[in-house]
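Sequence in, structure out. First:
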Amino acid sequence: MNLATLMACATCHLALTEQRDGQRITYRHPVGDDAHPVIPVHADRLQQVFNRCHTCTGAPPVWNYRTGLIAIVAVEGGTVQTYNDQWHVCYRCAQLIEADDSEALTAHCAGLMHWLPGSDEYTILNTLHRGIVLGREGRTLLTTTDWPAARITADMLPKVRDRLTGLLRGPATLPAPFNDLALRRSLAGQLDLAPLYWINHEFTDPVQAVSEEQPTARITDDLVPSPAGLLAWPTPVGDPQRLAAVSWTPQADGWHVVGYRSIGHAVEDDLMPPLRHEIGWLTPVHAEHIARRTALDGRHPPRPARHHLAPDQPADGRRSSDRPTQGSRQGVRTQQTPGTRRPNRMHQTARHHRVAGTYRTDGHPHARQTGLPVLGLRPRTPTAVRPRPEPSQDNRHSSVPQG
């Protein structure tokens, strides 16, 4: 399922709101009905699409607020203006809505439009904002916004994973196909214990060049480096370049595979810490169940990850003669949790960096990692992983990288 498809009107190029009723989807113009009928098309087919906050029009939207259908009646003229029941809202405006402060919301938005208090425009806008704040029924995280990409480094991965599992366990509603509570909790629990893989810069650019030309390969257990995992690139890959990370977790007869888009420096500096705490760095944009021995070609959405996991796998599922065995997978640098041992084998070229996590006494992985490879090195033998002293409770989560 694709969670990143943004629909826009082919006539006015405005991003559309979406109303689901079972299998039926209805698209509407933002804010209010326009003078022309909606002609929904994929936004990628249009050169320019206006996708901004419905309340201030000044920033990309983060949340979709649901209300009843809002209408404003002019007392003197008796005219009725009907608005929407879906509101795409940026992070700053969402903070004001969550604070139940419609006056501050109107002051912020009217200031951007240079509308003075007491004017007709200001009064109508305040009435609309009161309807949104008082009538909101819930909100859903938007996964269709084309965020500036984050630059993910290996030492960020434990914190990135920690925020992702927090989002999955948290109260935020995700897009309907991905919002099953049991599925979210299961995915979070498995990612808590999964190894982390970071692809260095040297092998990120070639992925972009060759991934679409890869031959068909059948996905089997011996192709994945671990039963579950989270793999990330320093910069997005794919076409278009939106894929920042991929996770895989075991399910009956296969894996649950999720692709993620990254969120870079998307809001003002004062809003970055709460955004990182509430949402993190990754939002899901693709999710599906892949059964064992499924044939995947270079056009499949998670194809960049397949380039690292099965670069030379033939379609019949047999191992290529020059393919390394599971114990010495090409380009995989493995760091084991302290106390475990593994044969000292590694390919000369470091394509993946596997990041080991530390664990608290309650069994949950801590955001800090135990030991990271020196990026860019090509050691002949794996470096030993030594646990660092546990931080105190006071400063354990004190730093929040700004991505």
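Second:
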Amino acid sequence: MFRVETTMLMPNAMVVAEVLSRYRRAQARMLRDPRNPAHRRQLEDAAYTLSVLMGQRTVRTAVLRAAQYLSAQSSRSAAHRSRPTESLAR
């Protein structure tokens, strides 16, 4: 038996943040006015986009993965900024 390893390309963090924010805004609108069909369509569209973007089958998992991804990106960015720059001249 052999093992197949897969590598997934990850989306741009700014795109993930925008889509996650759009999903959360649509969810809030839907909770305020659940009978509005436009709000339902917006929530479904944002949920689908986020699920595809994060490569997940459910929106719940996609939201969790997006939040984890953004947190990790933020941590990496902070660590990169705090690292002293190396001198090019040796």
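Remark: The two ends are 51 Å apart (CA to CA).
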